[in-house]
Amino acid sequence: MNKRFNFQYIGYSKLNDVIAIVATDLKNGIGKDNQLLWHLPDDLKHFKKLTLNQVVIMGRNTFESIGRPLPNRINVILSKHPTAAIKDVEWYSDIDLLLKELPMKYPDKQLIVIGGSQIYKLLYPYIQEIHRTLVHYVFDADTFFPDFEKDFECLESNFHTKDEKHLYDFEFQYWKRKNKR
């Protein structure tokens, strides 16, 4: 007997798992006054390597602090108040629409959340992996990454000692959600 099945493509694939990239201090601080709290050249190289040719999702404040679309990436801004069209930037004001459309538009790309704090919190339930740079210092931060350690497990960690180019010890960590959806 020949059975027919109707499958609806919803745009989801393993590649479309939502990933967060974040640099935090020892208390999950990520910034102050809409600025980063440190400058670590190796962290910037790591960020570039992970995000190149992928979809980067950010809030309007993060975009404004960067000052331009990140080159060789698909720049997506999630904001309640989209502003004028900017070349090489896609705007979304609806998180459900963003999560539905982006995997269909870019099925071969990773969806990478790069900040800020409000965007990390909004997309937290969908984040399956976190690439975290942990800076071994406590800064006077006013913006924080959500407490995530109870929901994720650290699978990799690579420590870097401070040197002439890096004022702080830091480590690159890879975290994966414990109970995947």
What can you tell me about this protein's structure?
This protein has 181 residues and is an alpha/beta fold. It has a single domain, classed as Dihydrofolate Reductase, subunit A (3-Layer(aba) Sandwich), CATH 3.40.430. It has four helices and ten strands; from the N terminus they run ββαβαββαβαββββ. It has an eight-stranded mixed sheet with strand order 5-4-3-6-1-7-10-9, with helices on both faces. Strands 2-8 form a two-stranded antiparallel sheet. The radius of gyration is 17 Å and the shape is globular. The N terminus is likely disordered.
Keywords:
181 residues; alpha/beta; Dihydrofolate Reductase, subunit A; two-stranded antiparallel sheet; 4 helices; globular; disordered N terminus
CATH uppermost class? Alpha Beta
Number of strands: 10
Strands of the largest sheet, in order across it? 5-4-3-6-1-7-10-9
Which series of helices and strands comes N to C?
EEHEHEEHEHEEEE
What is the general shape?
globular
Question: In the CATH classification, which architecture applies?
Answer: 3-Layer(aba) Sandwich
Q: Measured on Cα atoms, how large is the radius of gyration? A: 17 Å
The percentage of residues in β strands lies in: 25-35%
- The computed structural class is alpha/beta
Q: Counting H and I runs of at least 4 residues, what is the number of helices?
A: 4
The CATH superfamily title: Dihydrofolate Reductase, subunit A
CATH topology: Dihydrofolate Reductase, subunit A
> How far do the termini sit from each other?
34 Å
Tally of domains? 1
The low-pLDDT segments are 1-15
| Largest sheet descriptor | 8 strands, mixed
